[in-house]
Amino acid sequence: MAQAYTAACTFLAHLVACRSCSSDLKAADCSNRTLIDYAQQELTRWGYSCHMVEVLPGKWNLYADLRPDLPVGLLLSGHSDTVPPDSAGWQSDPFCLTTRDGSLYGLGACDMKGALACFMALAQEIAVRKSKLRQSLTLLFTCEEETSMAGARQAVSLVRPSALCIIGEPTSLTPVIAHKGYAARTLTIKGRSAHSSNPRAGRNAITGLKLALDCLDKVAARLASELDPGYSVPYATLNYGLVSGGQCINQICAQVDLSFDLRPLHYGTQEDLNAMLQAALAPVRQAGFEFALTVPYVDVPALEQDISPLLQDFVKLCPQKPCKVNYCTEGSILKACAQAVVVCGPGSIDKAHQIDECVPQSDMRAYVKLLQDVSLQVLF
């Protein structure tokens, strides 16, 4: 195990050094190609059959299969991108792995290059025994998880069906077996501009926004009435995240935009959700305001699944009890190509997307051991 942990730390240093930031701001966004090239070269050298796909310009997925002639027993999946760093606040270079106070510091060390490094360490170890496998080990490195999740959506058509898929998001090695969905919407309300000295000459879109907020508050109240005590926030939530409108104080506002998100416990279809929101917002149109709902990101469904024997066996190997979480992951997308999905990785989500991001060395050691144990259980 010590050898695999040392290898994981070496791989993590290389992965952290590869800039792979995803951002909605063009100036902060960059390609993940350097990271994908590095992982592909290593995996190919160990005997994996590798396939790279450019999902979006400069954004790549990598799929590596050790034994394409066998059914897939274990799929290890994680995203290769990070959020951009606030470099000025870091105590050390965010692109240089640094060890201090029992933790490994670097951009993405926690979310989630630490898990990717452990996947590579296991992949190297298993490759030596590939002739003894009864099921194949496969790895999937995705792009764009921090923005659109386009990488995971593309991967569904690429990967072979697997028995168990492990998503290496930072959970402090707690097995996450279910999570809420995610749906973002932008509501645009149209009014009519005029001089503020004569309100009757126009129609103030901010007044329409007030009506819309009342309508959406009622939606939030309905969502809060359905409870699932398995979640720390035991109901679906609605959050107002962004609002903009108007051009100057002495002009009646002609347009206002409100962006909000929902995190449903269960999920039907994007069309069903849009129909519900349109119906809920009907009083806005009845008051004389035109509005439009747009979808900035494709919805992410909730992860819901039966607890299969395979999942039960994995949970028994973990130091923590299984749980449900309020945030969403690629797990609900990749569920389409796996009999069972579990989200489990080293590091805490509380350390993700922060200055001085880090993963505990103890978590890395424990995760390497966990992956070794599950591989023996599933692959041989």
From TrEMBL:
Name of this chain's protein: M20 family metallopeptidase
Q: Which GO terms describe its molecular function?
A: acetylornithine deacetylase activity; metal ion binding
Q: Which cofactor does it need?
A: Zn(2+)
Which residue intervals define the domain Peptidase M20 dimerisation in the entry? 177-282
Q: What is the lineage of its organism?
A: Bacteria, Pseudomonadati, Pseudomonadota, Gammaproteobacteria, Aeromonadales
Under PANTHER family, the record lists:
ACETYLORNITHINE DEACETYLASE (PTHR43808:SF1)
Q: Which domain of life is it from?
A: Bacteria
Q: Is-annotated flag, keyword Acetylation? A: no
